[in-house]
Amino acid sequence: MLVIGIAGGTGSGKTTVVKKILETLPVEEVAVVPQDSYYRDSSHLPMEERQEINFDHPQSIEFELLVEHVKSLKEGKTIPQPIYSYLTCTRAPESIKVDPKHVVIIEGILVLTNPALRDLMDIKIFVHADADDRLSRVINRDIIERGRSVNKVLERYEKTVKPMHVQFIEPTKQFADIIVPQGGKNKVAIEMIKTTIEKTLLMHK
Question: For the chain, what is the mean pLDDT?
Answer without folding.
Answer: 88
